[in-house]
TrEMBL record:
It comes from Streptomyces wedmorensis. This is DUF1697 domain-containing protein. It comes from the Bacteria. It holds the Pfam family DUF1697.
């Protein structure tokens, strides 16, 4: 059975560093045998389908290895299936429809977002910014955007995310990836 996934690359094409052109990323994914490959923006978002039966971690490992071989540097990646992405969007505890995309973010993690990791953060000190935890995701409400967010810095501290790969997407990108994975799934049927 064919399944659709999104690959979320961390920290590429930032200030001219760790360049991974999207056309080359599409070629690389197609070279791995994936179908329906499409990218979104320059920040490392790709959608693809595969009938390989491989799980998210296997797909992530293959992608990280292929990127390192092709570009000469390792890039942390997360691979999530379309159903997971849709579930994250649906479970958002904030009024996403009433907010600008830059005000709401999903920080995807490679493992569980255990509440204990975040227990030392004084939530009151960061208001009106807020966060909520989900399944391998942290929802971050930053009314002035991520660039000005103090709470973003607090939830990203190495002591908090130790041992996890984390990569953030604004809500517009979250919704676009859900849409793209649904479109690809529909094409397969």
């Amino acid at each position: 059975m064919t399944k659709t996934y999104a690959a979320l690359l961390r920290g590429i094409n930032v200030s001219g560093h760790r360049k991974v052109p999207m056309a080359e990323l599409r070629e690389l994914l197609e070279g791995l045998g994936y179908d329906g490959v499409r990218t979104y923006l320059q920040s490392g978002n790709a959608v693809f389908s595969t009938a390989s039966g491989a799980g998210e971690d296997e797909l992530k490992d293959a992608l990280e290895d292929a990127i390192e071989e092709r570009f000469g540097f390792r890039v942390d990646c997360l691979v999530r299936d379309g159903d997971y992405l849709a579930a994250v969007a649906e479970a958002c505890p904030f009024p996403a429809a009433d907010l600008e995309g830059k005000q709401l973010h999903a920080v995807y993690y490679s493992g569980p977002a255990d509440p204990e990791r975040f227990a030392a953060i004084d939530r009151e000190a960061y208001l009106p910014e807020e966060f909520a935890l989900g399944d391998r995701v942290l929802y971050l409400y930053a009314p002035d955007g991520l660039g000005r967010s103090k709470l973003s810095e607090a939830v990203s501290r190495p002591s908090v995310v130790k041992g996890l790969v984390a990569t953030a997407r604004n809500w517009n990108t979250v919704l676009k990836l859900v849409e793209m994975t649904r479109e690809e799934s529909t094409r397969e049927e």
